[in-house]
Amino acid sequence: MDGSEKKDKARERARAWRLANPERFLESVRRCKEANPQKYKELQRNHYLRNIEARKEQSKKWRTDNPERNTQLTKAWVEKNPQRRREIANNWRKNNPEKVNAIYAHRRAAKLRAVPSWANHFFIQEIYDLARRRTKATGIKWHVDHIVPLQSNLVCGLHVEHNLQVIPSRDNQKKNNI
């Protein structure tokens, strides 16, 4: 019997013992974690790095199989970590300028297509001016928002004075309609 066969037999015996004694196994793991927290953390990290692709696939499959739960957990995390979410979004924007530019170019083009000939440009400019003045007066950033969005799967609005409102930026950003 060579070394690899001995290792395989030892692994199999250990696996059988773990399955036969789950409480004792978990207790020994807990004691080991308490006695060597740094070593355990390093083992976890190494295991994660060795299996990162498999973990990504596993996570992707879970998100696909559990869309409602995934949405629920994501919303809870976002509410709990607003600062971290902003950091992540800012980092993404910084690292993906071409995608950001494409998104905003697409929106500008949609906005141009959504302006009918009868739109009152004076009133539209007044609404944007009101947002600037409110931002300056209150110190809170205000946005001009389209009540009926310019781009949507359900309905697309027009860029006209009757479809615009001035709201705080945090309320506009909550809508996630770039």
What do these coordinates show?
The protein is 72% helix and 6% strand. It has a two-stranded antiparallel ribbon with strand order 1-2. Helix 2 crosses helix 3 (37-50). The protein is mainly alpha-helical and 178 residues long. The protein is elongated.
Summarize this, please?
By secondary structure, the chain is mainly alpha-helical.
Output the radius of gyration: 28 Å
The overall pLDDT, averaged over residues, is 89
Give a count of the beta strands, DSSP E runs of length 2 or more.
2
Helical stretch tally:
9
Structural class: mainly alpha
Q: Strand portion, in percent? A: 5-15%
Alpha-carbon distance between the two ends: 66 Å
Order of helices and strands: HHHHHHHHEEH
Helix content: over 70%
Shape type: elongated
Q: How would you characterize the largest beta sheet?
A: 2 strands, antiparallel
Low-confidence stretches: none
Strand order, largest beta sheet: 1-2
